[in-house]
């Protein structure tokens, strides 16, 4: 039994959990890097918790390069580099939650305003699967 109680995840759920695009997960799956643990009744791929770990491992070298490049350009301290790496490794859901919590703290109570919903969406940026150094640095403290 895996750390997720044996639960199998759809490719969309796996994308949300890892922050990778569905097409990227399909590419890794087709290449044998992360094999489906099964199929749904409709024939869709299903993945176990081990797939999340494997995909996180695949992402690490690309993120490490981007973090180191951003740190070198910025002259970052070890603490800032650690923070950049942690932020870059978050899944899309985790980043959205972190940003949402921050926006709630800053703009608490504004959500009732219809115009604010669009403004809030524009403040919620997504880090791509293979971020450039500048994109990682945008997540780092100034």
Describe it:
Helix 3 (49-74) packs antiparallel against helix 4 (78-89). The chain has helices spanning 11-18, 22-30, 49-74, 78-89, 92-107, 114-122, 133-139; strands at residues 9-10, 38-39, 45-47. A three-stranded antiparallel β-sheet has the order 1-3-2. It has a single domain (9-139), classed as Multidrug-efflux Transporter Regulator, Chain: A, Domain 2, CATH 1.10.1660. It starts with 8 loop residues before the first strand and ends with a helix. The model has no long low-confidence stretch (mean pLDDT 76). The chain has 142 residues and is mainly α. It is flat. It contains seven helices and three strands.
Features:
single chain; 142 residues; mainly alpha; Multidrug-efflux Transporter Regulator, Chain: A, Domain 2; 3-stranded antiparallel beta sheet; 7 helices; 61% helix; flat
Record the SSE blueprint:
Elements: E1 9-10, H1 11-18, H2 22-30, E2 38-39, E3 45-47, H3 49-74, H4 78-89, H5 92-107, H6 114-122, H7 133-139
Antiparallel strand pairs: 1-3, 2-3
